[in-house]
Amino acid sequence: MSAISRCETLAMLPRMSKLLFLACLVALLAGSASAFFLHSLVWATSLRVSQPWLLFLLPLAGFAVGWVYLRYGRQVEAGNNLLIDEIHDPTRIVPLRMVPLVLWGTVMSHLFGASVGREGTAVQMGGALADQVTHLLRLGNADRRILLMCGIAAGFASVFGTPLAGAVFALEVLAIGRMRYDALFPSLLAAIVADQVGLGWGVQHTHYAISQFPVLSAWTLLATLVAGALFGLVGKLFANSTHALSALIKRHVSYAPLRPLLGGVLLVAIVWPSGAERFIGLGIPTIVDAFSQPLPVYDFAAKLGLTVLSLASGFKGGEVTPLFFIGATLGNVLSPLLHLPFSLLAGLGFVAVFAGAANTPLASTIMAMELFGSEVGIYAALACVASYYFSGHSGIYRAQRIAHGKHRPFPRGLRLSELAAWKRRQE
């Protein structure tokens, strides 16, 4: 090793040591917050299932959440998009109030029967807690960006029990076509430690199993690509529908607390008469069933519609677990059509719809291998990459930047929310 190389290595050690220590601190905070959140969700879900009448209070719960966010949470209402914006263009510290607000709002949504997820809450808590560390230590923007990514990685990893996917997700979600490798080591350590912290607090993750892998052949590869394309189109439909309905509701209902109130009324009117309780909340039992038995062909569409309505009207929570539900049940429907095992296509749909909707094919592929084993790797990679391309330049995170277009060039750094206006100017 040359003298210059030795000097570079030695010069790197103090800063890297500091970042790794702070990543562990962020992981401890985020992992503990996620554990409290997941235990709260178990309580809320159990209570709702045992007391079905709670569904009728959903409109009032929505109004309460909307009013609290209007009164105290305007600065943090952007949620995950606020974190992505702060990493790209640092302006102000993410307020600590994001943590209790999003935690309380999400538990309320689950307790009374909205169809929402959980990853958004864990990611927001992780990012907000990480930013308090950067504020206390007066870190510069470069280190602040890295710790915010550590918070995202820790939140994602601890809520799903997938540390490798959590680390890659934090690097991949920021921009389409580019990853931030400067944060790889701290994010990886934060994800691993946060996952272990959650397990230490007694968190138990659901286990899914792919029971059968077909022999690799031209047909299985082609069928996997076809399925991946369909998963991507459904991911695009989910993202575009959520944004379009949210914009429509905001345009016609100016008072924010009324939006989830009206959305709650519609949800109750749909769910109670039809007996569609299995489509509200996380829907974990139905996801598990999708791996082992045929399900009704409409399950994925029902979950998609109720989740779009819940999120667009202002209920708090994440999109990812509903996307898992939509993907697993859609894969279940496609299984006999593509002559692939139920469990395999359910598993591929589980990760690939998310890959297309979030524009994170690498994190989704790694998640598949963490959840289902390394044998799924080839199939998951094909399905997730196909989904990524077929979902186009859409996504659930409007603050995502376009670093490299999927099919055509775009201005570097363009936000997904700015894409439509840019296209109109080009016409």
TrEMBL record:
Its main location: membrane. It is found in: Membrane. The chain crosses the membrane at residues 51-72, 146-171, 216-239, 260-280, 300-325, 337-358, 378-399. One of its GO terms (cellular component) is membrane. One of its GO terms (molecular function) is chloride transmembrane transporter activity. Keywords: Membrane, Transmembrane, Transmembrane helix. The keyword Membrane applies. It comes from Aquitalea magnusonii. This is Chloride channel protein. Pfam families: Voltage_CLC (PF00654). It is a multi-pass membrane protein. InterPro entries: Cl-channel_core, ClC, ClC-type_chloride_channel.
